[in-house]
From TrEMBL:
UniProt keyword Transcription regulation, yes or no: no
Protein name per its UniProtKB record: 3-deoxy-8-phosphooctulonate synthase
GO cellular component, as recorded: cytoplasm
Pfam families: DAHP_synth_1
Keyword set, alphabetical order: Cytoplasm, Lipopolysaccharide biosynthesis, Transferase
UniProt-listed Enzyme Commission number(s): 2.5.1.55
Start and end residues of each DAHP synthetase I/KDSA domain: 7-266
Amino acid sequence: MKINNKEISNDSKLTVFGGVNVIESDELLFQVAEKFKEISEKYDFNYVFKASFDKANRSSLDSFRGPGLDEGLESLQKVKDRFDLPLITDIHEPDQAKSVADVCDVIQIPAFLCRQTDLIVAASKTKKIINIKKPQFSSAKEMFHAVKKCNAAGNEKVILCERGNIFGYNNLVVDTLNFQILKQEGNPVFFDVTHSLQQPGMLEKSTGGRGQYVYELAKAGISQNIAGLFLETHPEPNEAKCDGPCALKLSELDSFMERVIALDEFVKNI
């Protein structure tokens, strides 16, 4: 499969799905998209802008969810028009698939929803690339059931994304062997490094996190010879309306990507 005429595979140069956790404002989207595009051209990696229009699986009723489908897609279209970037966003209900496919190049299935057959089938029928997050409660091998659902709906363009497993209360761990298992059927494998740093339900109304370790954890994933990295950033993570404790600070993005791309090239040239 290709985006921007560049191959997405476990042996190709790294692809990055990067952006913000949730749409807070057009200004924030533009700021992050501009920075990511500049850095992707500087270090020559394949880049897709990411933002969510709705965070449906929040810790609390009071948690910020985003602008919703219609307003969110309008904002994403503005990013596409202004910066000429491909887009990825997640869907939560089958009837969202077609509207999202009209704007986005990749449709993401959230981790908690990857067992929802109707959702996966609706996304697959759009013929867009499908990025399926591995649930925190599932083994790597179980992901191939979701892949088969996509294939049965006529879509072979399926990416599998590792994002850690529940380990006791308020904690996630990443088993690096999962990357090799997820690659067994030939699907491109991504690593959602920022969400793997979550501490679910740790804060009163939101998820905690350990964003200070984002580079160290990213190195572990990149060492496994994978197709891509999923990464969220924010100019001020402490002020982010969702998952701020896991996000990389935008001012650190250039240095982070310089090191990650160098490591990816080293691993794939061994």
